[in-house]
Every structure is written in structure tokens, then in C-alpha cells.
Q: What sequence folds into this?
């Protein structure tokens, strides 16, 4: 069983290069409003997460994921 | 009451800001007169057309026009019905025969537009529990086809074979998979590495659909597209195409060798629940497709045009979408929307029409002046086009 904090930290590492304003990260941080990502940044980031955890996050799933916390939970679910 | 239109306010504002700078609206051009595949009258001025997708110049081909007129007289103005009810006339069948001859494939199905062909085929063949794997830069009709269906959608980085392969390997081996690719991507005019992409797709047990809208009639020995050019057309399960580019009319199609393909006519909603194209359009299209089979001289001249324009624009100092000319589309990259619109207007004032393309249609948030060449552009016209680019580019400060 993957430790949630470990996954959160890894996700945070992957967010860092795209976190231009140095926004503080928590479970509640939203990609669209807090991080102000456009669709291209999302695409690059999703590819990075997929490759790091060796998973697929379909576009159908991406539509449901709005916050960092939701992404961490999805990664844990997909990786189990 | 909540105004449902309030969600469009940012776009309305952007448009107003752009027009406030004094430029003409780039998205409401009217052609008052069309003189040939390459010349029209816009704003009272004779204008060279360099943004029409009319790659092979078939719109004014005398045989194509004659066939349409004859069908108009014999079969009337329209079909008033669906292909599966009263909307299949002699010429609808004939154009499907022409497509089978053109592609040397067993089945052909004609839709009312290319958009509907992608919408229909993609949403119908990939169902619940299946996966669609597509290039992130895919055309809107491909995305809309995914949205309309029930499959899971997986995107990979543009033209990246390794990214595609990795994602295919992560999917359940037993699940149905459809890989959707394009031969030529219409925004930058770049070509896909179909050979490698189709190989990794087949190794993963996926079916492959290739949209060859922008390559038909031009790329490949018989003009069948990029898959033919790269020697992998036999491994493509479905080719999607359109009549509104090289064929010079309107309509869309899918060709396939799948033995059960004909069932699509019963289950594909964008085919069933819409009116069939007018007989005149079908007759013109069939004639055009058969003429395109023998278009190798025109293809050679179009390549020449593409190479000359690409080199000329580069030498002038413009930034282009591709390092080398790969298709009949050459995209000139603009620094931003405002200067792109200024340059677009300066070209139009100099009697040259190109497409202004901007996000979200373009990749990476780019503003592009997209040029599409025609086999009917003369070498003199291409030289003239370059002169006008030089004048407009210097006037707007895009080049020095």
C-alpha cells in the first residue's frame, strides 16, 4: 500500500516546474484557479504524472479532477 | 435570470479589444466574386487566395462543373432525406464506387461533411469499455467524436511515437483500442510518423484510424495520403477524408477493408439522422475523385509551389511551423494575436488572403498565418505572394 504522503510529495515535485508563482500546495489547491494552468500545461503535467507512476489518467477522469488532493487519490487508486 | 451567454463574455471582450485597435475583423471576410481556384474579389479588390484548402484546384474544373450541372437537371436540387431512407440516389452510390477505386479498398461510406465522418465513425466503433488513443493536437471533429461516444479517451504528445507506445502498453491488453491519427496536421502542416505509430499500435492489438483530409489527392504515389507515402496504407483500418479540400466540393467519407464495415450504415447516427448531400454535389465529387487519380503532374507542381514558398518565406526572415515543407500547408508563426491580425490585414490590403488561426484551434497557444497552396497557383503567383509577404511583413515590423 502506497503511503499517501509519499504520493503527495511526488506529485508536488512534478507540479514544481509548472508552479510559476510558487503557490503553496495543499489537498485543496486547484489546478485551474490556484495554479492558473491552461490546457497545455495540464497536458504536459498529466504526461509527467502518467510516466512517473506508470498509469493512465484518461481525459474522462481528468475532467473530474480539480484539486491536488483529488489527483493524489486518483493516482493511489490507479496504481493499486 | 442567469444570462446563459455570460460565459462568452471573455471572448466577446477579446474580440472588441482586437477590433478597437482598428484592424478589420479577420473572421468575417466576404468573397464578393470568385474568379478561379486562386483568385477572388474581396473588399472590391482582386485577391490571391492562399488559404482555401483547394489543393488541387478542382472547384472550377470544367468536367467537375459539367457533371454537377447534369445531375442538377436530372435529379433535382436536393435529396430531402437520409441516406438510409430516400436520400441515396445513383450518384451517391457512384461516388462511393469512385472512392473504392481511388483507395483500392472494399468499402466506402459517404457522409454529409468530413466533420460528420469523424464524429460518426469514432463515436460508433469505440464504445463503453473501449479506449481511444489520440494525438493531443487532433482536429475538433475527432475530439467531438470522442465526446459523443462512451469510450475512455487517452491523449499522447503530438507526433511522439514513444508516448503513444507507453500509453498503449499501460492499457488492459484485452480491451478494444482505437488509435486515431492524422496524416497531415492542419495547423502547422506537419506530417505524422505513421509508419512507426501504426507499427506500435498494431503490436498493441489496436485498430487504427487515419484522417487524411489534408493529404488526399496530393501526398502518396496515387494521392491516397501519408499512409500510402510511408508504405503502411494496408495496415490502416479506417481512412477518413473529405471532399471539401482536394476534391473541391463538400462531403466526408470513410473507406475501409473491414469485412463487416457495411453495418455502419445502420448504426452510425451522424450518417442515419441527417440529410444526404445533393445529387449535383455527388456527381461533381465522383468526377473530381476520378480525375485526381491521374493528377501526378499537378501533384508535382504543387510540391514545387510548397517548396518555393517555404524557402522564400524563410529567406525573408519569417518563423515557420515546420523546418522543411511537408505538405501544401505552410504556417507562419506570429508573435501574438494583435500583430497576427495586423499582418493578416496588411496582406489583405496587398491583395493576398491567408487564414488567421489562433487558440484554441492552434497548438501551444500560437497565432498563425496559415497558407495553403493550390496546384493552380502559377510560379508567377507564388513569386508575387512572396513580394506581398515582404511588403506586409516590413510594414508591420514582423520582419526587418
A:
Amino acid at each position: 500500500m502506497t503511503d499517501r504522503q509519499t504520493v503527495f510529495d511526488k506529485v508536488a515535485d512534478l507540479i514544481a516546474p509548472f508552479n510559476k508563482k510558487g503557490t503553496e500546495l495543499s489537498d485543496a489547491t486547484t489546478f485551474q484557479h490556484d495554479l492558473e494552468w491552461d490546457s497545455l500545461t495540464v497536458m504536459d503535467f498529466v504526461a509527467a504524472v502518467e510516466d512517473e507512476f506508470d498509469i493512465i489518467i484518461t481525459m474522462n477522469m481528468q475532467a473530474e479532477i480539480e484539486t491536488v488532493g483529488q489527483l493524489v487519490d486518483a493516482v493511489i487508486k490507479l496504481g493499486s | 435570470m442567469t444570462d446563459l451567454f455570460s460565459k462568452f463574455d471573455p471572448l466577446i471582450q477579446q474580440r472588441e479589444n482586437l477590433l478597437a485597435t482598428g484592424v478589420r475583423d479577420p473572421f468575417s471576410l466576404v468573397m464578393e466574386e470568385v474568379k478561379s481556384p486562386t483568385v477572388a474579389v474581396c473588399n472590391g479588390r482582386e485577391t490571391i487566395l492562399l488559404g482555401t484548402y483547394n489543393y488541387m484546384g478542382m472547384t472550377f474544373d470544367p468536367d467537375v462543373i459539367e457533371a454537377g450541372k447534369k445531375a442538377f437537371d436530372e435529379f433535382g436540387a436536393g435529396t430531402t432525406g437520409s441516406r438510409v431512407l430516400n436520400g441515396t440516389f445513383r450518384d451517391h452510390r457512384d461516388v462511393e464506387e469512385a472512392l473504392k477505386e481511388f483507395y483500392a479498398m472494399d468499402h466506402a461510406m459517404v457522409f454529409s461533411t468530413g466533420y460528420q465522418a469523424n464524429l460518426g465513425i469514432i463515436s460508433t466503433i469505440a464504445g463503453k469499455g473501449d479506449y481511444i488513443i489520440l494525438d493531443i493536437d487532433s482536429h475538433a471533429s475527432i475530439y467531438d467524436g470522442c465526446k459523443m461516444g462512451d469510450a475512455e479517451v487517452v491523449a499522447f504528445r503530438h507526433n511522439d511515437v514513444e508516448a503513444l507506445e507507453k500509453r498503449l502498453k499501460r492499457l488492459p491488453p484485452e480491451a478494444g483500442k482505437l488509435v486515431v491519427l492524422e496524416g497531415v496536421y492542419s495547423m502547422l502542416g506537419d506530417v505524422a510518423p505513421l509508419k512507426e505509430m501504426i507499427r506500435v499500435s498494431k503490436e498493441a492489438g489496436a485498430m487504427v484510424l487515419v484522417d487524411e483530409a489534408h493529404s488526399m489527392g496530393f501526398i502518396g504515389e496515387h494521392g491516397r495520403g501519408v499512409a500510402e507515402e510511408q508504405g503502411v496504407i494496408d495496415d490502416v483500418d479506417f481512412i477518413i477524408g473529405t471532399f471539401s479540400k482536394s476534391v473541391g466540393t463538400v462531403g466526408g467519407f470513410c473507406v475501409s477493408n473491414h469485412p463487416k464495415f457495411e453495418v455502419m450504415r445502420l448504426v452510425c447516427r451522424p450518417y442515419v439522422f441527417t440529410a444526404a448531400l445533393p445529387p449535383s454535389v455527388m456527381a461533381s465529387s465522383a468526377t473530381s475523385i476520378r480525375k485526381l487519380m491521374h493528377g501526378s503532374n499537378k501533384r508535382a507542381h504543387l510540391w514545387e509551389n510548397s517548396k518555393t514558398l517555404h524557402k522564400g518565406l524563410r529567406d525573408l526572415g519569417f518563423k515557420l511551423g515546420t523546418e522543411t515543407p511537408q505538405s501544401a500547408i505552410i504556417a507562419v508563426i506570429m508573435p501574438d494575436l494583435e500583430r497576427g491580425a495586423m499582418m493578416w490585414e496588411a496582406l489583405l490590403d496587398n491583395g493576398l488572403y491567408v487564414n488567421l488561426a489562433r487558440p484554441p484551434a492552434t497548438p501551444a497557444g500560437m497565432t498563425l498565418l496559415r497558407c495553403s497552396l493550390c496546384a493552380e497557383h502559377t510560379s508567377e503567383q507564388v513569386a508575387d505572394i512572396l513580394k506581398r509577404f515582404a511588403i506586409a511583413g516590413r510594414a508591420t515590423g514582423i520582419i526587418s
User: Anything to note?
Assistant: The mean pLDDT of chain B is 96. The two ends of chain B are 53 Å apart (CA to CA).
